[in-house]
Amino acid sequence: MIFWFIAAVMTAAVTLLSLWPLLRSRQEHLASRAEHDVEVYSAQLRELDADVARGAMAPAEAETARAEIGRRLLRAADRGKSESQAGTASWQRPRTLAAIVAVALLVPIGSVVLYAQLGGAGRPDLPLAGRSAPTSGPGDIQTLIAGAEERLRAEPEDGRGWDVLAPIYLRIGRVEDAAEAFRNGIRLNGSSAARESGLGEALTQIASGEVTDEAQAAFERAEAANPAHLPAKFFLALNLSQEGRRDEAAIAWTQLVEMSPPDAPWLEIANAAIADARGEAPPATATADADPVTPPRGPGEADIAAAADMAADDRQAMIEGMVSQLAARLESNPNDVEGWKRLIRSYTVLGDSEAAGAAYRTARQTFAADSAAGREIAAFGDELGLTAEGETQTQ
């Protein structure tokens, strides 16, 4: 009962506020305007008399000006009177009456109808977790890509558009489109470390992991633009290993490791490549008694050299086998945050978004959400564009 009383009072208040502009008379507003005009013209007449008294204006000119001001004064007074009379009865006009009736009926009736459809005084509160929230997934990013592509078809010289679209293409595995987009970005916006490195990475993925001559040239331009650009250094070191230039590769990998942050995703491969290039034993894989975050062995120089001679399908199978070994190790030793990050990123690079999502979900379930490891995994997923459900989200 209290609810309905409050609802009735609020409805009545809204109805009155809606009707007030129609019910009030315009007389006061119009009269104020007419009085203002009369006062202005009266002041002009007084100033005219003062000018004549000071000798600033000849009497003949003053008479002419006085006549003109007087005519304006009379017109303003007559106009104000007629508008005032019309405004007094404006709410009684047929159109105004029709509007009053419509508002008086529609506001209460519309409120009742809407409440009957959407409301419910006896319904329980909906928990925050159960409320609908914006979602994003593969369909959303495909829609955004389609919109960007349509815009670029209309404006193919939009360099900023190509800069935005190129890394998205690379992330979702459309590597041929990524290479073309990076080329357009370089042509329109100029060479930069990020654009050249992106082009080189796209070309390397097109070649199933082999750093081609064109990709090498792009990485060299990236390094020239920014000597501290680590992705370019990684692929240039990888190219040396693929070509069997062991001494140069060891130096390049060592420089990369020295310049890299401790959580760089390529450290595992770099350390293994250094050991192979120097003829040393590769880093040991983790055991049950070892430090759980010790990384497993990555592809060494011999593996990379062998992969360079393989067919594209065989090379892809070898890479996927290495990733599978990491996944198997994490099944027996799941408390390895860095291992999970490497696995998720590896699946992403391979273009297997479903496997990346499954690994991300498992990692989220392995660590408590409020723990440091859980927060680190969540932040890593945000960086890669993964939702809590493991799906790719729009960036």
From TrEMBL:
The chain crosses the membrane at residues 6-23, 97-118. InterPro entries: C-type_cytochrome_biogenesis, Cyt_c_biogenesis_CcmI, TPR-like_helical_dom_sf, TPR_CcmH_CycH. Residues 139-265 form the Cytochrome c-type biogenesis protein H TPR domain. It is found in: Cell envelope. Its main location: other. GO terms for cellular component: cell envelope; plasma membrane. GO terms for biological process: cytochrome complex assembly. Keywords: Cytochrome c-type biogenesis, Membrane, Repeat, TPR repeat, Transmembrane, Transmembrane helix. The keyword Membrane applies. This is Cytochrome c-type biogenesis protein cycH. It comes from Aurantimonas manganoxydans (strain ATCC BAA-1229 / DSM 21871 / SI85-9A1). The lineage of its organism: Bacteria, Pseudomonadati, Pseudomonadota, Alphaproteobacteria, Hyphomicrobiales.
